[in-house]
Design goal:
single chain, alpha/beta, Purple Acid Phosphatase, chain A, domain 2, six-stranded mixed β-sheet, 12 helices, 12 strands
Length: 366
């Protein structure tokens, strides 16, 4: 995105933020003082969002930074749905379907708009807290003995997914008794300060199976060198354009696209034994065909979050060959996960949080 495009997007975003704020102010049937207080809170939430996406939280005390992140990113979800509803109401009003009084100091209008948004957000918060268990069984003549692997991506631990949340996830994964754990990047959200201050590395060290992972774009946002140091402290084996033979299979970890010098899948695969079952961890599912050409047996990716919330999920589906789920291409199998954690607001609306259990079995056991 060039400089002028960035300026353009920023101006459009600011105009939309002001529009929603004005509409909220006008539709409420409260006193002027109460509406001014709401407008002030709205502005504070906007500021909280800006701080959360620009790295400004690192200078705040942890409790304040965490609250600021949650308020700001929850506001973003509210803003998106409020914008959609107010634009729809404008269209209906222009078509003489919706009376103008429904949008000005209206108890009914306020109840519909805010009630609907809050109900959807409450449902989304419940959906996010529930973690789905997806299961796949793959047979291959390259597998000598059965393996149970837990794969996950996009944990986004930080100011919103704190240590207590991570501890629950670790207990859940340990409960699977896997032979191996693989993570396809974005373990860290946007700041290593949050995970270091919380002592999150100690939770990862409680995992009872070897852990291998690649980097995601958020590790670069957080500072790649600091992220690598956290991986090391957490006992996570980082595969950065490299591979390792573990439990009789080959795990390949591709660097994130933030590194313009990262290696192509075929070059990474060429350095490995083709007689072993090869799993590639590639955070972004942008080059699926290349993994097939490299004759990788299984590619696991994340990054898309399945769109995270509707209608963003529709846009993600349009932009990605495989935005979520399972696919086969040639001899390569793929799974793009919607992620165990989440970036931003802790809401899943039309998508789900999950981890994958992959059973690898010898061919004769099929």
């Amino acid at each position: 995105m060039n400089y002028f495009s960035s300026i353009g997007y920023t101006l459009v975003f600011m105009a939309a933020v002001i529009y929603v704020g004005v509409r909220c102010y006008r539709i409420l049937p409260w006193s002027r003082r109460a509406r001014v207080c709401l407008t002030a809170f709205y502005g504070s939430a906007v500021l909280a969002y800006v701080l959360s996406v620009t790295g400004g939280l690192d200078i705040l005390p942890m409790p304040v930074a965490s609250l600021t992140y949650i308020v700001g990113n929850s506001w973003m979800i509210f803003f998106m749905y409020a914008l959609m509803l107010f634009v729809l109401m404008e269209v209906l009003r222009l078509m003489d379907i919706l009376p103008k009084r429904f949008m000005i100091h209206s108890a009914i209008g306020s109840s519909v708009v805010f009630g609907l948004i809050l109900a959807v957000m409450a449902w989304g918060a419940v959906q996010y807290r529930h973690k789905y268990r997806e299961e796949i069984t793959v047979t291959s003549d390259k597998i000598e003995s059965p393996l149970k692997i837990v794969l996950m991506s996009d944990l986004h631990i930080g100011y919103h997914n704190r240590r207590a949340t991570l501890a629950r996830w670790v207990d859940m994964i340990n409960g699977e008794n896997p032979d191996l754990i693989l993570i396809a990047g974005d373990i860290i959200d946007r700041s290593t300060r949050a995970v270091v201050d919380d002592g999150d590395a100690a939770e990862f060290r409680r995992l009872k199976a070897p852990v291998y992972a690649c980097l995601g774009n958020h590790e670069y946002y957080a500072g790649v060198e600091k992220s690598i140091e956290f991986y090391k402290d957490a006992g996570i084996h980082l595969l950065k354009d490299s591979s390792a033979v573990v439990c009789g299979i080959t795990v390949i970890g591709r660097d994130d696209a933030k590194d313009s010098l990262r290696m192509r899948p075929y070059l990474l695969a060429r350095k490995t034994n083709p007689d072993t079952f090869r799993i590639m961890l590639d955070h972004r599912p942008d080059t699926l065909s290349e993994a097939s050409l490299a004759k990788v047996d299984f590619q696991f990716s994340g990054h898309t979050h399945g769109g995270q919330v509707w209608p963003v999920s529709w846009l993600v589906a349009l932009r990605n060959e495989l935005p979520y789920g399972y696919m086969e291409k040639g001899s390569t199998r793929y799974y793009v996960t919607s992620g165990l954690g989440i970036w931003g607001g802790r809401f899943r609306i039309g998508t789900r949080s999950e981890y994958l259990v992959l059973y690898l079995k010898p061919e004769e056991e099929s």
